[in-house]
Amino acid sequence: MKLIFERGAEGRGCSILPPCDVPEVEFSRKRETKLCLPSLSETEINRHYSELEKQVYGVNSGFYPLGSCTMKYNPKVNEAAAALPGFSGLHPLQPEHTVQGALELLNRSEKALCEITGMDRMTFQPAAGAHGEFTGLLLIKAYHQKRGEGEKRTKILVPDSAHGTNPASAAMAGFKVVNIPSGPDGCVDLEKLQEAAGEDTAGLMLTNPNTVGLFDKNILEITGIVHGAGGLCYYDGANLNAVMGIVRPGDMGFDVIHLNLHKTFSTPHGGGGPGSGPVGCKEFLAAFLPGKAAERREDGTYEFETPAESIGAVRSFWGNFLVVAKAYAYILSLGAEGIPEAAESAVLNANYLKKKLEDIYPMAYPGTCMHEFVMDLSKIKEKTGVTALDIAKGLLDGGIHPPTMYFPLIVHEALMFEPTETESRETLDEAAELLRKLYRTACENPKELHEAPIHTPVRRLDEVQAARKPVLRYSYDL
Amino acid sequence: MKYPQELFYSKSHEWVKLKGDCAWIGITDFAQDALGDLVYVNLPEVGDEVTAGETFADVESVKAVSDIYSPVTGTVAEVNEALLDAPEAINQSPYEAWLIKVEGITDREELLSADAYQEMAEAEQK
Predict the structure, then answer these.
(1) Residues A336/A341/A343/A347 CA torsion (nearest 10 deg)
(2) What pLDDT shows up at residue A272?
(3) What is the pLDDT of residue B124?
(4) Residue A24 DSSP label
(5) Fewer CB within 10 Å: C terminus or N terminus of chain A?
């Protein structure tokens, strides 16, 4: 389809924009190049975006089992809450006494999320997950510096199954990354961790359940080893959906965590964002949190306060406030019973789908899983020549968004499924049926899968060329 | 899959060509095949120190970003800058596409012969 820049004609416009009410002034330095803005009529704009929408696939279109991304349904009541004019019409520089409701919402959201995670304080500044990791690591750094060990504690331990953002955030925060290998069971190798932990350890970053969908049963020993060496423990909240309301990172021994409100707490995810990656910590780190926190005064009013030894702001203003409003609506809708129930259903759904497929698709780790599971298609590739990528493309033809591919890296030909709790049994049955059909095609007519997808708006994309020679913007012929 | 006899290999899938106290380092045929089409290479600079067992470069394929570990300790004498614009050369001829040349080698990790490496790589594939 045509790009918006290729539509319309010069001089055409629409009535969406009001006439300019700012007096025009002659500048001495006028721009010399053409401004190049699309000029479309309202009809053309409408049709352009309607056509785009038809080509897009999202949770609203169908099953979206993208592992570790928790693509759960985003309840529309969240949008209604965030759209309340008292929230959506705020200016970030309004005086505190005019935004008391918004401050109360931040304060209550912090309390609720601290209760769920076992933390004492939380900041809503970070814009999303990796930003939260970076912020959390700066807290760890500030802690060691205050104790006079900043120079000495330079290493962050990261298991090899971690999300790629973990080592990247650690490097950005100025730490050296030490990779901890997983044992054959997919969990942290305790001996290797013991060897790596020492006087230079600043901390450990871990997700639990981990990326292969397993709850690390040694978690208390793991956090104990790191604490014993004088380091702190960071919890990556990417997989909290499997355990929310059931077990708390704070009780597992973690000192700092981040959450992905856009995963676990049902706010829109991906291109529909923005995200929100609040960072929580135990009391002994609270003084370092970025400002500002919404504090409740004794008279019941609220004010913004910056913690005493704050690392400073990590983002402008108060973070993505409306995302917090949506997450708070979700927490209140589910309540104390609904939150653990969502986690249980997420685990049940993953195990149901896994069970329906494990007779033909080899699983990387046998037994029950948590909220997600990983298939290892290397045997299927050896036998039929069909790769994880081919199966993913075949799923597209069947109207399902593919799972995460080739991740975690410790599993070759990996496909990682996370169905989430918001999918019905019928949806899971249909997905299993499609996957079984694709397996039969792989055995009988592998060529068909090498050519998939056929029924999508675009066929198989040239990922290599796109990465090597990306075209990131439209170029006008001037 | 090729495993040239005249080269040495590390357990983390780098090849080393040794000559006096110089070494050329690249990634093996097995490694490039496992990574898939490479789209980006990040190399050190001439004069940088590399340490045996520690990472000195990273490569990005359509699947993932992977660290490349140095099998030797020494100083980077040359960098194969042609790879920056044409990372596909590593896929096409992994044993010609050296990443760096190291001089003044003072230490090296335990290296494998071609046969021993082939055995290890084939076992890993299973």
Answers:
(1) 170
(2) 60
(3) 81
(4) P
(5) C
The residues, ordered by sequence, that sit 6+ positions from A83 with a Cβ below 8 Å of its Cβ are: none
Among candidates A405, A407, A464 on the partner chain, residue whose Cβ is nearest the Cβ of B39: A464
Contacts of A284 (CB under 8 A, 6+ apart): A143, A255
* List of domains in chain A: 1-23+35-55 (no CATH), 76-333 (3.40.640.10), 340-466 (3.90.1150.10)
Summarize pLDDT for A310-346 with one digit per residue, the tens: 999 999 888 999 999 999 999 999 999 999 999 999 9
8 Å CB contact of A464 and B60:
no
- Peptide bond between residue A274 and the one before it cis (omega within 30 degrees of 0): yes
Which strand (E) or helix (H) includes residue A108?
A: helix A100-117
Residue ranges, chain A, pLDDT below 70: 271-272, 478
Chain A positions touching B60 (Cβ under 8 A) are 467
Task: Output the pLDDT for position B105.
Answer: 93
Contact in structure between B118 and B96 (CB atoms under 8 Å): no
Asked whether the beta carbons of residue B40 and residue A409 sit closer than 8 angstroms, the reply is: no
Number of domains in chain B: 1
Residue A301's pLDDT is 97
Dihedral (Cα; A356, A213, B67, A157), 10-degree rounding: -170
Closest chain B residue to A178, measured at CA:
B54
| Beta bridge partner(s), residue A463 | none
When CB atoms are compared, the residue of A405, A407, A467 closest to B39 is A467
Separation in Å, CA of B24 to nearest CA in chain A: 25
Alpha-carbon distance of B70 to A37, in angstroms, equals 51
Q: Give a yes or no: residue B125 inside a domain.
A: no
Which ipTM did the prediction report?
0.75
- For the segment B87-92, the average pLDDT, to the nearest whole number, is 95
| C-beta separation of A146 from A309 below 8 A | yes
> The domain containing residue B105 runs over which residues?
8-117
CA distances from A472 to A69, A468, A469 (A): 25, 12, 9
Share of residues in chain B with pLDDT > 90 (%) = 83
Q: Are B41 and B121 in contact (CB under 8 A)?
A: no
Nearest residue of B to residue A465 by CA position? B39
Measured distance CA(A46)–CA(A48) in Å, rounded = 5
Task: List the structure tokens of A94.
Answer: 């309004």
Residues whose CB falls within 8 Å of the CB of residue B112, separated by 6 or more in sequence, listed in order: B8, B9, B10, B11, B120
Q: What is the CATH number of the domain that holds B31?
A: 2.40.50.100
By CB atoms closer than 10 A (0-12, 13-18, 19+), residue A72 is buried
Q: Distances in Å between the alpha carbon of B48 and those of A172, A357, B87? A: 20, 50, 21
Looking from the CA of A389 toward its CB, the CA atoms found within 13 Å total 11
CA distance A58 to B99: 41
Between A403 and B125, where is the model more confident?
A: A403
* Cα dihedral value A89, A95, A101, A105, nearest 10: 90
Strands A155-159 and B8-9, how do they pair?
A: unpaired
Look at residue B59 and tell me if it is in a domain: yes
